[in-house]
Amino acid sequence: MDYQKILDQIHEELTYKDALGKVASYIPELAKVDPRKFGMHLYCDDASHFSFGDSEERFSIQSISKVFTLTMAMQLLGEDLWERVDVEPSGDPFNSLTQLEYENGVPRNPFINSGALVIADILVSNLQDPKRELLEFVRKLTGNNTIDYDLDVANSEKSTGYRNYALVNYMKALGNIKNDVEPIVDFYFHQCSLAMSCKELAQAFMLFANRGKLLETEEKIISKTKTKRINALMQTCGFYDEAGEFSFEVGLPGKSGVGGGIVAIHPSKYSVAVWSPLLNKKGNSELGMAALERLTTLTGFSIF
């Protein structure tokens, strides 16, 4: 399979000029991102790399980070984790408060904001220094010790994150948050501010395409069973109330973020990341969705 030829064709076909989406503006720092940015990187199971555009420029990965924190929480708690967060698609916006009232403070899944905040609470409870340990985990997955938080983004989120404070307070009132509110949201805002490139994201997510092991060293990070669970959640819940559309159009497990990034994996074949900050009405990268649809169409590979 000539992946570089396919990526070059995608790059030729798609341009920001055709996108109708807008850069995320509810986080002030994200509103400053150049809407013309567009990059894609594919990392194969034979350790080969293929890319185009702005694939090595770092950006705020936002909710893509929820896959990393979920992986860490599953390492710590195993099956007990699911007593505090469910595994069902939400069908509602990622920051919805409505479902929590009906479901007694148990979030539908770990990828909506309320679910990720419960995961943050678990990590705050179980780790000595959760921000440092998350950073160490991501650096290990990529083999790159220069990855860091974008503190401007973290502070920007903190200044406008009233709904996330509301989610934590509401779940605390219903007994599903164990720590004080401030350390939880502080950790959450930092995890969302992680700055990574498409290349680094593709390298990190190869873990989930390679049965829970690092590709270069074959070191086991998480069990094959837990990897299967995470991939299933990415397939059904990785795009909020557009998860069905992504499965229909692309047919891969993946995760999006409002920074404009999307990562997807094809088990035992590749991991791929794409970045374009222009978001559709559901908060997912418009060009990113289109690029991944073209990838699975042109290669003929999806999990279905």
Structural features, described:
It is an enzyme of class 3 (hydrolase). The protein is α+β, with helices and mostly antiparallel strands and 304 residues long. It has two domains: 3-58 and 197-298, Beta-lactamase (3-Layer(aba) Sandwich), CATH 3.40.710; 63-192, DD-peptidase/beta-lactamase superfamily (Beta-lactamase). Helices cover 45% and strands 12% of the residues. It contains twelve helices and ten strands. The strands form three sheets. It has a five-stranded antiparallel beta sheet. A three-stranded antiparallel beta sheet has the order 4-6-5. The protein has a two-stranded antiparallel sheet with strand order 1-10. Strand 8 (261-266) and strand 9 form a beta hairpin. Helix 4 packs across helix 8 and helix 7 (162-173) packs across helix 8. The longest helix has 14 residues, at 113-126. The radius of gyration is 18 Å and the shape is globular. The mean pLDDT is 95.
